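Sanity check. The docking grid for nicotinamide-adenine-dinucleotide depends on where the pocket ends up, so I'm generating a full predicted complex first rather than guessing from homology. Inputs follow.
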Amino acid sequence: MIAQAESVRGEERLEPIRIAVIGTGARGCDLIRALTTIVAVKIVAVCDPYGPHLERGWQYAGPLARTFTDHRKLLDETKPQAVVVAVPLASHFDICRDVLDAGCAVFCEKMMCYSVEQARNLVARVEEKRAVFQVGLQRRANAIYRQAAAMIQTGMLGRITAIQCQWHRHNNWRRPVPVPRGHADFAQLDRQRNWRLYRDSSQGLMAELGAHQLDVANWFLGTPPKCVFATGGIDYWRDGREVLDNISCLYEYEVTPRKPARGQTPVVGTNEEPYTVRVSYSSLQNNAFTGASELILGTHGTLFLSQKKGLFYRESLPETIDWSNRADKQASVVTSGKTLKLSNDPWAHHGAPFEIDSESDDTRDELVSFVEHVQQGDRATICSARDGLVNAATIVMANDSIEKRQTVEWLPLNG
Ligand SMILES: NC(=O)c1ccc[n+]([C@@H]2O[C@H](COP(=O)([O-])OP(=O)(O)OC[C@H]3O[C@@H](n4cnc5c(N)ncnc54)[C@H](O)[C@@H]3O)[C@@H](O)[C@H]2O)c1
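Predicted complex below; grid placement will be based on this.
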């Protein structure tokens, strides 16, 4: 959260950087809208082969942006410093490779690559080019999640014993195709517009939704999973799609306990032995009741997290913690819409709600952070290509498990 506060101040110090956006569909336009609010950004070009999307992207980017239907031409003719890549998953690798070869910094939407092999290859290229590279997993920039990470780091939750997360929606993901079924172009346009529904262009719910939440688990636990068992099916939207409409996963993580910093309360039950944390994840497309959130369960307390709200509930542990003289026995609240009041020492807030300025938009915040890193030539972005590789491997292993109907072990990632 401290980084975010610095980012907001830093925006004004920066020289504008020349950015191009490749892929001006739904997400590309969100990103363009956010970029136009950042003083330090000049959008020089937008690119999309699909006319209506290119037109909309250009409308948002403004009349100074040039338009292209071929990204290589864009790179050649406009020589941007940085490029935002928001194309369908199966094209992330090819386009990022070309952008890196053109010497640009890259902001690539999640999930970073369709396959682990591609992700490994991309990490090697990013390292070889010494490029600034950030993956669009925006919870890493979200003030609530950053505060949660600090609370975990300082031991407020005790030992994390489980994480439960889900993203439940009620929609079919299908987008309208601009020609009627039976038209000669229908199949091709359907594949383009509905790339999420087909297996050769999509890793389904795990990639489109789960990537965000498993990234939170990897980040908070400080390690990738050891193994996963997952199951899922096309049990409701039987409309010709190839990706599953519901998924349930159980990951196991082996966590090495951190030693408490000087002056911090030791974590209950911690010894030097690694221990297992189970992370459950579920995604549904036929019931939205529980929405999208994560519960981080610890021996001292529980965090409920979502993009706009976070709540912290303390466990009552009279034998280990004396809460008797504290006003906040019940729950401390991390809420949205308040002034930023964060500290490196979350304990400093005891007795009062945690207040986090999450009126800010995490998509904008992640872009502000990216722009700063580009300006400063700082490769340590909030979500590096290596984080993107770990994320992609975490997702792909769950899909493998579903396909094979067996537990899949984590494979070492060299590269
Ligand atoms: N971080 C988030 O919260 C978030 C949210 C939604 C989508 N996404 C990600 O953003 C990416 C795009 O998703 P979307 O919903 O915008 O899809 P979309 O289908 O709405 O848009 C993709 C666009 O890319 C264009 N495109 C395809 N090939 C191209 C190429 N070679 N060059 C330039 N443009 C090309 C398509 O014509 C389309 O307009 C995906 O990776 C998705 O997972 C991230």
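Relevant for the grid: Confidence is low (pLDDT under 50) at residues 1-10, 318-353.
Also worth noting: Residues 313 and 331 are 4 Å apart (CA to CA).
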